[in-house]
Specification:
This protein is an alpha/beta fold. It folds into two domains: 170 residues, Glycogen Phosphorylase B (Rossmann fold); 164 residues, Glycogen Phosphorylase B (Rossmann fold, 3-Layer(aba) Sandwich). It is built from twelve helices and 13 strands.
Length: 363
């Protein structure tokens, strides 16, 4: 059984790094030989080491030279035709210094906003045997912007651990009759995630909604980025909703936190997938999300969730008001979303598909 070696040299810690960590755990738990190459001193490395994966973690420096160091690590691990999985297109720079003899797969987590069909990208992208994208919309974007053969692209979405993310007892009620309804955004604090838009939508919703509502930001600031909270706090004060905005930070038990929410918002306008969407669906919590990126490939508007016009706070508020004011709609959306999550996003099925694709280097 050939070894699967992941590589992700990101400095920060977000959904991409969490997926790499969880896939590494799943491989080892299922008896698949696995290593993971990471940048030293990063949150991902710390998480791997704290969970007991010292022997399977290969750490390299954090400077630009980490790409050369990662290539050296690949060469060292490239025995018995190991299969390599690279999580960021930036980390393809490692392939400038060494091309493994085994299969190389790129799991692409983002949309490209610029054309990458120049000579440099033609060369570096050609060194990958297989590209994996998360949605049909992302596949179209990759083929439009990149020199990738359509026959070397597979669609494998992010999955949900259904043993962790399970629905609350009733899908009928958005929350307890007493106390404020909780709306949650599960994302790092980042301008692209639309937290400012959410605060504007909250202010509009509170104007005429009969129950108190609170907006919870479940996530932390991106390491190394300008802190977002002062900007969001200022906006909330200006709109008079500062007492209704709560910063929950990072939650280890996200499954439990999701079940406490009435609605999950996804206001981002550049979301490739939005893993919290199927997680909320599996928890029986309806989602109101921006009609952008790969989100429409996950949510069927009016059946498994609601989509609002991108960057339109008034439409987000109105769709949420509609959802919370119609118990039949709420229960119908929650039930259909739960069934869809179980059918399409079971993590065990997803990881098995990913393992087979990485080993074979073909769709």
């Amino acid at each position: 059984m050939n070894e699967i070696v992941q590589a992700t040299l990101a400095i920060g810690y977000g959904g991409l790094e969490l997926i790499a960590l969880e896939f590494h755990e799943w491989l080892l738990r299922n008896g698949v030989p696995a290593r993971i190459i990471v940048a030293a001193g990063t949150p991902l490395e710390r998480n791997l080491l704290s969970r007991g994966y010292r022997d399977s973690t290969v750490s390299v420096g954090r400077s630009f030279l980490r790409y050369r160091a990662a290539a050296a690590a690949m060469k060292e691990l490239d025995r018995d035709r190991a299969a390599f999985l690279i999580h960021r297109h930036q980390d393809l720079k490692s392939l400038l210094f060494y091309k493994p003899s085994g299969k190389v797969t790129v799991l692409n987590h983002t949309f490209y906003g610029v054309n990458k069909k120049d000579l440099f990208h033609r060369f570096i992208f050609s060194r990958a045997d297989l590209w994996i994208v998360l949605t049909p919309a992302q596949r179209e974007n990759l083929l439009d912007t990149s020199p990738v053969d359509p026959g070397r692209v597979a669609i494998i979405p992010n999955g949900v651990d259904l043993s962790r993310f399970s629905p609350r007892e009733s899908l009928k009620s958005p929350g307890p009759e007493a106390g404020p309804l909780q709306i949650g955004i599960v994302a790092r604090l980042d301008p692209q995630k639309g937290q400012d838009l959410a605060i504007r939508a909250l202010a509009l919703l509170k104007k005429d909604f009969p129950r108190p509502v609170r907006l919870h930001f479940i996530g932390a600031n991106t390491p190394g980025e300008t802190p977002m909270r002062p900007v969001l706090d200022k906006l909330a004060r200006e709109l008079g909703v500062e007492d209704s905005v709560v910063y929950d930070g990072f939650f280890k038990d996200l499954s439990k936190r999701l079940r406490e929410l009435a609605v999950v918002w996804m206001p981002s306008w550049k979301e490739t997938f939005g893993r919290c969407i199927p997680e909320a669906m599996a928890s029986g919590v309806p989602v109101v999300a921006s009609n952008a990126g790969g989100v429409p490939d996950i949510i069927e508007d009016g059946r498994t969730g609601l989509l609002f016009r991108t960057k339109d706070a008034a439409d987000l508020a109105e769709k949420t008001r509609l959802l919370l004011s119609d118990p039949d709609l709420y229960e119908r959306l929650a039930g259909a979303a739960l069934a869809d999550a179980r059918e399409r996003y079971d993590i065990e099925k997803i990881w098995r598909r990913l393992t087979e694709a990485v080993r074979n280097g073909r769709p």
